[in-house]
Amino acid sequence: MKDREMALMIIEKYREIIPEYHHFVETIFRDTTRVVRINRIRASTSYIKGRLKDLNIEARELPWYRDALLVFSGKEKLAKTLDYHLGLYYIMDLTSLIPPLILRKYLGDISLDIAAAPGGKALMIAEFSHGRGIVIANEPDSNRYKALISNIDRMGYSNIFVTKLDGRRFPKVEGVGTVLFDAPCSSEIHIKRISEIRDYLNGNIYKRYSRLQIAILYRLYEILTPGSIVLYSVCTFNPLEAEYVVMKALETGYEVLSVPSIPLKFTSGIESWNGIEFPPDIEKTIRVYPHLNTEYGNPGYLYIALLRR
Description:
By secondary structure, this protein is of the alpha/beta class. It is built from 10 helices and 15 strands. The strands form 3 sheets. Strands 5, 6, 7, 8, 9, 10, 11, 14 and 15 form a 9-stranded mixed β-sheet that branches. A 4-stranded antiparallel β-sheet has the order 2-3-1-4, with helices on one face. The termini are far apart.
């Protein structure tokens, strides 16, 4: 069976909840647009833009975030440059910029990225916190932990510390007031890479990740002080890992906050799925779909919920 046919089998179940479904399908099969986020401690945006131009890499500045360049051609060269290996920039999906930008105004003395690898979002938060706060970047998976360490070493931030702990048993750390939980998930935005579809078709993968995400959010509720902020995000379309998880967070005691204005188009969280009616506060959560933002090509996808302990 061809990759596209397998992918279509997996996502067909979302036809009724994803707006402009046919346009959505066309968009997710395009190559994902990449951005270069500049390490402002080591380089300027204009310097990196000039260096990329010399390598025939076409990039333009994002109007809403001065420290990132949107790459249109030559992205296969980005990880091969001297500037990359010297930590002058980090390569990431466009949508990955959004969670740290949302959290920026909430950052305090200590922030936690509970599932940090490969590190792009944690490093961005570290830059926002430079000179006034520290970041704990946690990653329990051994292989992903190595990638996280490598990226942090390469980028050279001095205010980021790494732990290797199961998020379901993460210890209480005094002073943590902001948490990014970009959760391990079924990653359906990368559907072109999926080689084994059985768990997707029988639903087991969604149930497995949903249970894990709920357990980690519950642990965060136990160890955080009232008023702490948690941003939960996933790059999968399935509501069992998105709206359902937030519903369970509400039952635990979290409050859902409205997501502040972001520079990408989105829809609100859905009202129901497979007979499950979600509470009204789920409408405060957002789904940032790639086909609603095609001025950036295929910028990726995220479901985002902003929670308060």
